[in-house]
Prior knowledge:
This protein is of the alpha+beta class. The chain folds into 2 domains: 13-54, no CATH class; 57-191, no CATH class. The chain is built from 5 helices and 13 strands. The protein has helices at residues 24-27, 38-41, 63-69, 128-131, 167-175, and strands at 13-15, 21-23, 56-57, 72-73, 76-77, 84-85, 103-109, 115-118, 133-134, 137-138, 140-147, 150-155, 190-191.
Amino acid sequence: MLEMAEKAPKRGDAATPSGNTINAAKTGAKGGIGAVSQAEMGLEQGRGIGGAEVRFHVDPSMLVADEAAGVLKNGNYIKNPTAQTLGNLVTDSGRIGSKNMNGQYMYVVNQEGTIIIGSRGGQRMPHPTLVGGKNPQVLGAGIVDIRGGKIYSVDNASGHFKPGFGSLDAAKNAFGKLPSNVFHKNFQGYLPYGARGN
């Protein structure tokens, strides 16, 4: 039988609408499970109670399909062979890869704040495969649109992690560490899921 990717919240934890948890005891909140609202948790700002980072887990409803597709084996996600650290792709000329790099790429901000990008490679390679392993957790996830080797836009569209609007703060933080010249002159910004106007 497939093991669940996350544990039930403990006393002192608060659950987000997508089932992700933050520990209220570590962040100074009072009360037990569900004792605070999403607004009180500060999730709109990408932070939990008292400023703690929110870590997003894989939505448990995705596990059966991932196992059937072969990307989840024995409770561990495989590593996407296209996964690369975005910072390592920045060239001296201020491009991501080359001027010929175009397309929409999956990205995650891992627990260390590093951006990892990759493609689906024509197969089922969801966001958790960018991290791989058992119970992958991220600070943010979505799609980065690269045009002519420049970052055109960043969103938080991930059906596996279902990151809230606040995850864009983690993305802003991580992408903000890149040189400013890697952004497209018409950079569209950090777009909440559904706001992409292509």
